[in-house]
Amino acid sequence: MAGVPTSVVAASGLVAGYGVARWTKKRPLGGLALAAAGAVAAKGWQEKAGTKAAAALSGAYVAAFAGSHPLAKKIGAWPSVFAVAGGVALASWAVADRRG
User: Fold this and answer.
1) 50 conformational bin, left if phi > 0, alpha if psi -120 to 50, beta if neither
2) Is residue 41 within 8 Å of residue 12, measured between CB atoms?
3) Minimal CA–CA distance to 50: which of 4, 6, 3?
4) Where are the transmembrane segments (predicted)?
5) d(CA 99, CA 85)
6) Is-above-0.85 flag for pTM?
7) What is the pLDDT of residues 49-95, one digit of tens each?
């Protein structure tokens, strides 16, 4: 997968998923954005770092989405989304993108 780094795709998917759900007031649309970006990122992770890394990063992506909800109760919705997106971006860069 050439072009956009997987770290950017994954972080953007988390941010866009929340943004779409919030602004349209239609959670399924946000879920669609989240899932589409996750699928693109997973393909890139697999191509760049292999199947095991892609599975681990996909798990981190889903865990970040799930973890953003309880975190939002403590720090607010947008700060939570940006925090988990940053965490996923960092993990994605460390495992897949920095390799070249």
Assistant:
1) left
2) no
3) 6
4) 77-96
5) 20
6) yes
7) 999 999 999 999 999 999 999 999 999 999 999 999 999 999 999 99
